[in-house]
Design brief:
The protein contains 10 helices and 7 strands. By secondary structure, it is mainly α. It has one domain: Ribonucleotide Reductase, subunit A, CATH 1.10.620.20. The strands form 3 sheets. A 3-stranded antiparallel beta sheet has the order 2-1-7. A hairpin with an 8-residue loop joins strand 1 and strand 2. The chain is globular and about 65 Å long. The two termini are about 35 Å apart. It binds fe (ii) ion (2 copies). One fe (ii) ion (FE2) binds next to helix 4 and helix 5.
Length: about 475
């Protein structure tokens, strides 16, 4: 199914046939462009960037590459094609036809799910807005902008659902998406991790590795939804999310490669004098990003999450592949519990542990990249290992919120935490150093001191291709 680019808002949902909806979205569009100019990537409005634009949602060749002047990027509304005779796959309505319109009794829950997801999309653009000033190469600058325009499109995807299915309160929610801002003390973004500035490129790669992977898992759970327009929207968004995680994983890999090369070349663990980033600094960035991302999944025990599942609104990761009745009525599972003697366990209704289940799948998926990072270290004959910290480490939400633990998961006192946390989490000094090496590199094919070149360029182009034109 091709996307109609003749419309003011490119789409594959026959927007032209619904003049009222089209008018509502056309009213929102100028506010969006205003927001992009004010809160989007700094100093980018004059650049032409070699970007991928979706031209079809078919699996074969949905992407088109060309130079784009970013404010003119064709943000639009693309849903995967409907699956014929699709049935609800879980919860109380399992086996019934999927909903093509909002089920009235679940309206407010659905709106909340869509708003929470939607809010993260413009938030990440805001968080990353300063990074264009310090890109380590043209290749990386282009990738940053690609991620940014796609997050912008993800906002469009959620705003479409709000406008198309929720009437006036949907339109109000859509307006508020542009009024909350990352880090704004008065009107912050909804989730905490989406209010931190992404201040350097190591953080950007960690963000696209960890935060975008949270995005993948949330979208995958919503892609199971019985509300079919939401499921189809999220399925298409997942194809874009995969690219964001690619940017993160290959980015971290290239930083690490450079670190290992410098370590061997100078026979030292401390590569700062040579403009590199030490392995233990990389570990601290991992500790920080991973732990705040675990918080994004919410409390381990949650009646909201149980309701979303029973109502058929939000499933589990790869729901259809799971070997159970997909209803879980009366099922019990054991979850951890913090006691005076350490971490114990308790048995509770499985339905209330949906957040924990999704988080555990996220952890497995995150570990896969860590294994690849460690192979890279090994290949350089270096004796070091990067690891994900324990789920008890540095947590603000859920059962571990009130405790202190080492990255290995050992419970410690508040004093021990205060005395040791500088060894586990980025310090002011670490931030200062990492920022000090963020010097922009704009000559085609050249890389900053702290990162190795990518293995290959974008879409078959050479690494020294002029991915961004500054004129
Ligand atoms: Fe996104
Ligand atoms: Fe993303």
């Amino acid at each position: 199914m091709n996307i109609d680019y003749n419309e003011t808002i490119p789409n594959n949902v026959d927007l032209g046939d619904d003049r009222r909806l089209l008018r509502a979205l056309e009213r929102w569009q100028p506010a969006y462009i205003e927001w992009w100019k004010e809160m989007g990537p700094v100093q980018s409005d004059m650049h032409k960037i070699y970007l991928r634009t979706a031209v079809s949602v078919d699996t074969d060749g949905w992407a088109h590459f060309d130079y784009v002047h970013m404010p003119e990027y064709r943000w639009g509304i693309f849903l995967n094609q409907p699956e014929k005779d699709r049935k609800i796959g879980f919860g109380a309505h399992k086996g019934e036809d999927v909903w093509t319109d909002i089920p009235g009794e679940y309206r407010s829950e659905l709106r909340r799910l869509i708003v929470t997801q939607g809010d993260t999309e413009p938030a990440s653009v805001e968080q990353q807005r300063q990074l264009g000033r310090t890109a380590p190469s043209l290749y990386d600058l282009r990738n940053l902008y690609q991620v940014n325009v796609e997050e912008g499109r993800h906002l469009w995807a959620m705003v479409y659902l709000l406008h198309a299915y929720f009437g006036r309160d949907g339109r109000e929610e859509a307006d508020e998406m542009l009024e909350r801002h990352a880090g704004d003390p008065d009107r912050p973004r909804i989730l905490k991790a989406f209010n931190e500035e992404t201040a350097d490129w190591l953080s950007f790669f960690m963000f696209t590795y960890f935060q975008d992977r949270d995005g993948k898992f949330q979208l995958a759970a919503l892609a199971e939804s019985g509300f079919d327009p939401l499921a189809r929207t999220c399925r298409f968004m997942l194809t874009e999310e995969a690219h964001h995680m690619f940017v993160g994983e290959t980015g971290i890999m290239r930083v690490l490669q450079r670190t290992c090369e410098l370590m061997n070349q100078h026979n030292t663990d401390d590569v700062r004098p040579y403009g590199g980033i030490n392995i233990n600094t990389i570990q601290k960035w991992i500790n920080f990003h991973y732990s705040i991302c675990l918080d994004l999944f919410g409390s381990e025990r949650s009646t909201n999450a149980a309701n979303y599942f029973s109502m058929g609104l939000k499933g589990r990761y790869r729901e259809s592949k799971l070997d159970d009745d997909h209803k879980l009525d009366g099922e019990q599972v054991e979850i951890p519990r913090v006691t005076e003697n350490g971490i114990g366990s308790e048995t509770i209704a499985a339905l209330t542990t949906m957040n924990l289940k999704l988080r555990q799948d996220y952890t497995k998926d995150s570990q896969r990249g860590l294994n690849r990072f460690n192979k890279m270290i090994d290949a350089h004959d270096i004796d070091a290992t990067l690891s994900l910290p324990a789920d008890t480490f540095n947590r603000s939400i859920g059962i571990y919120a009130g405790i202190n633990a080492t990255p290995e998961g050992k419970l410690i006192s508040g004093e021990e935490w205060a005395a040791s946390k500088h060894a586990w989490l980025p310090t002011d000094d670490d931030h200062k150093y990492v920022r000090s090496i963020m010097i922009p590199v704009t000559a085609p094919g050249k890389m900053a001191s702290w990162i190795a070149p990518p293995k290959r360029g974008i879409h078959g182009q050479p690494i020294d291709y002029e991915y961004v034109l500054f004129h």
